[in-house]
Amino acid sequence: MALDQWSKGRIEHILPPGGRIRILPFFALTRVYNRGAAFSFMNGAGAWRNDLFLVLASLVSVVMVNWILILPNRPRTLPVALSLILGGAAGNALDRILHGHVIDFLLFHVHGWSYPAFNVADSAITIGAVLFVWSLVKR
Fold this sequence. Notes:
By secondary structure, the protein is of the alpha+beta class. The chain is 56% helix and 17% strand. InterPro entries: Peptidase_A8 (IPR001872).
């Protein structure tokens, strides 16, 4: 969460909204605001969406923490996976509380196609989710 918030602060300091710095032919830093969920889902919804996202993130966090505490014989990688997911969710939730949107800045693009911009918290959530599934399948 600390790396996520630090990186978003640096981007806010370095780039204007919509600005872009090309790092590699297929990768750039940008500054965009995501008011929706993943891949800007519900981006056009009203102000109620932040409340909905915060409530859902809180509920999922409580369920995940309780689940890991009661799960017998849990793989050692499971707490790491859940920590990544919860830390990423907390980073994006903090953005919503402080700014009303999530700050995204990592942009991959190839030949006119670009993947939706994302941030360190999104990466932690994705890595955590993959590790979570792997931990359960490995059992």
